[in-house]
Design goal:
single chain, 182 residues, alpha/beta, 7-stranded mixed beta sheet, two-stranded antiparallel sheet, 7 helices, globular
């Protein structure tokens, strides 16, 4: 199972593109709201109904294969402030699970110390918060079990990289062809 966390102010394309593409690849993806309710409002006013709340996820003691964090403001700040999410990220890192973040969200990983000794990328102006070995300006970077990406314009490439990480390049290429990705 893959879990994507959503907080009010998330970037809609960065959140929904990975869910869509990973589900096309056959993944069981759950959206988790850090709000008290399942309804989450994106940075551009689009309401999304998450599958479960973070409280429900904690009670179920979910152990995802991958955790995804979309960017957006103030969504990234809300993700960083959520103690349960930070605990789950630290547990996932210790259990060598995959972790992915796009746009401003890699700063959450950086502030938790998860990018030390790694290459990573993020939305311009968040580089200082990465606390990583090397800041990259590539659209998507996978270093070990952590994948980072730069922003909304890289959402499809980011999502296909996640498919590749989980299922291999051949499956990612198959999905890319099916969505007419150039």
């Amino acid at each position: 199972m893959i879990i994507e966390f959503l907080a009010d102010g998330f970037e809609e394309i960065e959140a929904l593109t990975p869910v869509d593409i990973l589900r096309r690849a056959g993944c069981d993806v759950k959206c988790v709201s850090v709000n008290k309710t399942k309804t989450v409002v994106g940075a551009h006013g689009i309401k999304v109904e998450a599958d479960i709340t973070a409280e429900e996820a904690e009670r179920l003691a979910l152990s995802p294969e991958m955790i995804i964090l979309p960017g957006g403001m103030p969504g990234t700040l809300h993700l960083k402030e959520h103690a349960g999410l930070c605990r789950l990220l630290n547990q996932a890192e210790k259990k060598e699970k995959h972790i992915a973040a796009i746009c401003a969200a890699p700063s959450v990983l950086g502030e938790l110390g998860m990018l030390k000794g790694k290459r990573a990328c993020c939305y311009p102006s968040f580089e200082e918060k990465l606390n990583c070995l090397e800041v990259s300006y590539e659209p998507v970077v996978t270093d070990g079990r952590i994948t980072t990406s730069r922003g909304m314009g890289t959402a499809v490439r980011f999502s296909l990289e996640l498919v590749s990480v989980l299922y291999g390049k051949e499956k990612a290429d198959e999905i890319a062809e099916s969505i007419v990705y150039m």
